[in-house]
UniProtKB/TrEMBL annotation:
<comment type="similarity">
    <text>Belongs to the GSP F family.</text>
</comment>
<feature type="domain" description="Type II secretion system protein GspF">
    <location>
        <begin position="270"/>
        <end position="389"/>
    </location>
</feature>
<keyword id="KW-0472">Membrane</keyword>
<keyword id="KW-0812">Transmembrane</keyword>
<dbReference type="Pfam" id="PF00482">
    <property type="entry name" value="T2SSF"/>
</dbReference>
<feature type="transmembrane region" description="Helical">
    <location>
        <begin position="213"/>
        <end position="237"/>
    </location>
</feature>
<feature type="transmembrane region" description="Helical">
    <location>
        <begin position="165"/>
        <end position="187"/>
    </location>
</feature>
<protein>
    <submittedName>
        <fullName>Type II secretion system protein</fullName>
    </submittedName>
</protein>
<dbReference type="InterPro" id="IPR042094">
    <property type="entry name" value="T2SS_GspF_sf"/>
</dbReference>
<keyword id="KW-1003">Cell membrane</keyword>
<feature type="domain" description="Type II secretion system protein GspF">
    <location>
        <begin position="65"/>
        <end position="188"/>
    </location>
</feature>
<dbReference type="GO" id="GO:0005886">
    <property type="term" value="C:plasma membrane"/>
</dbReference>
<dbReference type="InterPro" id="IPR018076">
    <property type="entry name" value="T2SS_GspF_dom"/>
</dbReference>
<dbReference type="GO" id="GO:0015628">
    <property type="term" value="P:protein secretion by the type II secretion system"/>
</dbReference>
<dbReference type="InterPro" id="IPR003004">
    <property type="entry name" value="GspF/PilC"/>
</dbReference>
<keyword id="KW-1133">Transmembrane helix</keyword>
<feature type="transmembrane region" description="Helical">
    <location>
        <begin position="371"/>
        <end position="395"/>
    </location>
</feature>
Length: 399
C-alpha cells in the first residue's frame, strides 16, 4: 500500500484535496470515483512532503523503531504493512527513509536480513545477523524482540553512566566558572591593593595574583585559547583512535574500570545467549557478541577464545586462559555447557551483571559527588589562602 495526494472536484462540494491509501494510482482513482470525486491531479506522497521532528536518529529512536517492528510482527502484521506503518508514523526523517528503503527492497524480493544489512545505518552490527537467524528458524518476531531487548539494555547502561556522572560534571563545570570569576574579578582587585611591586610576596601568592592580572588584561586571547581547547577536545572526541585509547584508559581505572568491565561482560553474555537461543552455532554467537564490545583489548581476547574453541578446547577453559572473567562467571558457563543449556546460563550471567552494573553506578555516583566537591573546595580554598598570605605579608604577619 502507498499513500497518494490528490486534488479533484466533488459534486456539491467544489474542489477538494487530501490523501488516500491505495495499491497503485489506478486503485487510488477507483476509490476516489467511488466517493464521487473526479481527480484532476494525483501523485504518490513522498517523504519530502512530510514534516519531521528531527532529521537524524538518536539511539532511543532506533530502539523505538525496532521495538515497534517487533510488536507489529508479533501482532500478525505482514512485513510490508509493518514497514509502511512505521514509515508513515515515524517522526524522524532518517528512520522514515530507512523504513521506505527496506519496504521497497522487500517488494523487489529481497530478504529482510539482506535489506537491513544494506539500509540500516547506526544500528548495532548484530541486528542483521539475528534477523537472519530469525528467518532461518521461522520465528522472526522473537528475533526482533530479542534485538529490541538488547538495544534497550544498551540504552539503560549508557543512561546509568550519564546519570552517574551528570551531577559531578555539573559541579565540576560550576567550579571552573567560580575559579574563572575569582581570577578575573577578585584577584585583580587584590593586585591593585598590593601595588605594582609584588616581588616580596610569597611564591604561591605571586603566581596566583600574576595569573589573575594576566587573564584580566588578556581576556580576548584567553577566550580564544579556551575556545581552541574546546574545539580541539571536540575534534579529538570524533577521532576513533583517541576514543579507543581513552576507553582502554578508563577500563584500567580502579572504580570506573570495574563498572565498565561489568557492563562489557553483561553485553557479551546477553548477545551470546540471545544468538544461541535463536539457533546460532556457538562460534558465530561468540563472534556476534565479540563485535558488540567497546574495548579493543577485550575483543582481541575473545577472538583468542573463539580460536581456542575452534581447536577443540572447552569454552570455560578458553575463557580462563584468555580473559579476565572471574571464576564465578567461568564456573556458571561450565555448568551451562555441561547441562546443555549454555544459552540460558549466559542470559542468567547477563542479568546478574546488569544488576551489578546498576549497583556500581549508584556507588560511582556516591563517590564522585564528594570528590568533585572536595576538588572544587580545594582549588577555591588554595586561591583564598594565597590571597590571605599576600595581604598578611605586607604587614609581616606570620601565619
Amino acid at each position: 500500500m502507498a499513500t497518494f495526494i490528490y486534488k479533484g472536484l466533488k459534486a456539491g462540494s467544489g474542489e477538494v484535496e487530501g490523501r488516500i491509501s491505495a495499491a497503485d494510482e489506478v486503485d487510488a482513482l477507483r476509490q476516489l470515483e467511488a466517493q464521487s470525486i473526479s481527480a484532476f491531479q494525483i501523485r504518490e506522497a513522498r517523504l519530502a512532503d512530510r514534516r519531521y521532528d528531527r532529521n537524524r536518529a538518536r539511539p532511543q529512536d532506533r530502539f523505538r523503531f525496532m521495538r515497534q517492528l517487533a510488536m507489529l510482527l508479533r501482532a500478525g502484521s505482514p512485513l510490508l504493512s509493518a514497514f509502511e506503518t512505521i514509515g508513515g508514523d515515524e517522526p524522524c526523517r532518517e528512520l522514515a527513509e530507512t523504513a521506505d528503503e527496506i519496504r521497497r527492497a522487500l517488494r523487489s524480493g529481497t530478504r529482510l536480513s539482506a535489506a537491513m544489512k544494506q539500509s540500516l545505518r547506526g544500528f548495532p552490527d548484530y541486528v542483521p545477523r539475528l534477523v537472519e537467524l530469525g528467518e532461518a528458524t521461522g520465528d522472526l518476531p522473537r528475533a526482533l524482540n530479542d534485538i529490541a531487548g538488547q538495544m534497550e539494555q544498551d540504552l539503560r547502561a549508557a543512561a546509568e553512566v550519564r546519570n552517574a556522572l551528570a551531577y559531578p560534571s555539573f559541579l565540576a563545570v560550576m567550579g571552573v566558572v567560580a575559579v574563572l570569576f575569582i581570577f578575573l574579578f577578585v584577584v585583580p582587585r587584590f593586585a591593585t591593593l598590593l601595588g605594582d611591586d609584588r616581588s616580596q610576596l610569597p611564591g604561591f601568592s605571586r603566581v596566583v595574583i600574576e595569573t589573575g592580572v594576566w587573564l584580566r588584561a588578556h581576556m580576548v586571547e584567553a577566550g580564544i585559547g579556551l575556545a581552541g581547547l574546546i574545539g580541539g577536545g571536540y575534534m579529538l572526541s570524533q577521532n576513533a583512535g583517541f576514543r579507543s585509547g581513552l576507553r582502554e584508559f578508563l577500563f584500567r581505572m580502579p572504580v570506573i574500570g570495574s563498572f565498565l568491565k561489568a557492563s562489557e561482560i553483561a553485553r557479551w553474555a546477553r548477545i551470546s545467549g540471545t544468538a544461541l537461543s535463536g539457533g546460532a552455532p556457538l562460534l558465530e554467537a561468540l563472534a556476534l557478541a565479540e563485535a558488540s564490545l567497546t574495548s579493543v583489548r577485550w575483543q582481541q581476547a575473545l577472538a583468542e577464545v573463539r580460536r581456542a574453541i575452534r581447536s577443540g578446547e572447552p569454552i570455560e577453559d578458553a575463557l580462563r586462559a584468555y580473559t579476565d572473567f572471574d571464576s564465578m562467571t567461568i564456573n556458571l558457563v561450565k555448568t551451562g555447557r555441561a547441562a546443555a543449556s549454555l544459552d540460558e546460563m549466559l542470559l542468567f550471567v547477563a542479568e546478574m551483571y546488569e544488576t551489578e552494573t546498576k549497583d556500581r553506578a549508584k556507588r560511582l555516583t556516591s563517590l564522585a559527588e564528594p570528590l568533585a566537591v572536595l576538588f572544587i573546595a580545594s582549588v577555591v580554598g588554595a586561591i583564598v589562602v594565597s590571597l590571605v598570605m599576600a595581604m598578611t605579608s605586607l604587614y609581616d604577619i606570620a601565619l
